[in-house]
Design goal:
With 181 residues, this protein is of the alpha+beta class. 38% of the residues lie in helices and 19% in strands. It is built from two helices and six strands; from the N terminus they run αββαββββ.
Length: 181
């Protein structure tokens, strides 16, 4: 009888673990698909320069959004590492050149990309691969139109960045962070 009770307790505990994992996944997906920070724009003739000529409009699933966020996080980490290395190198060089030991070059880090507003344009390219162009920005100054039209600004630094993701291959291209005036 004792082994049966132990088995029953173990089974109840593992079912609870599975249920907790499922709830965590559901919670994460619910956070990811937050219409207050995401909008999906359709491919049209005014923005078809973003993709090859054979591109066709597509849709995105919750799993696609999760993959997009993961890939953005990886690319932003790489960008921030490169920015840090550049800032250290520039600081060292300019301290020596200008004889100013207190000079510090500030890196233009992208901070917390998961909180950026994102415009997504999903397509199927001429090779049958799903791609998405992602436009990210950290403020909703453009509140009146960001869910309808592409937000395009001059400068703005790391508050604005764009990239193209091939969801089929899991690759990123055309990563660009806006400059600073």
């Amino acid at each position: 009888m004792k082994p049966a009770i132990t088995l029953l307790i173990f089974f109840a505990f593992s079912c609870n673990q599975s249920s907790n994992k499922l709830e965590k996944v559901k919670s994460r997906v619910a956070k990811i698909i937050d219409s207050s920070i995401y909008t999906i724009l359709q491919l049209d003739k005014t923005n078809d320069y973003l993709f090859d000529k054979g591109a066709k409009a597509s849709t995105l699933s919750g799993a696609d959004i999760e993959k997009i966020e993961d890939l953005i996080g990886e690319r932003v980490s790489e960008h921030n590492r490169i920015e840090q290395d550049s800032a250290l190198s520039i600081t060292k060089r300019l301290r020596k050149k200008n004889h100013d030991p207190k000079f510090v070059w500030e890196a233009d880090f992208i901070k917390n990309p998961a909180k950026y507003y994102k415009q997504l344009i999903p397509i199927i390219n001429s090779k049958g691969e799903k791609e998405v162009w992602v436009n990210c920005f950290c403020s909703t100054y453009e509140k009146s139109y960001w869910k309808k039209d592409i937000v395009a600004v001059n400068d703005g630094g790391s508050c604005f960045f764009q990239l193209k993701i091939n969801l089929t291959k899991g690759t990123i291209s055309d990563f660009m962070v806006n400059g600073v005036a």
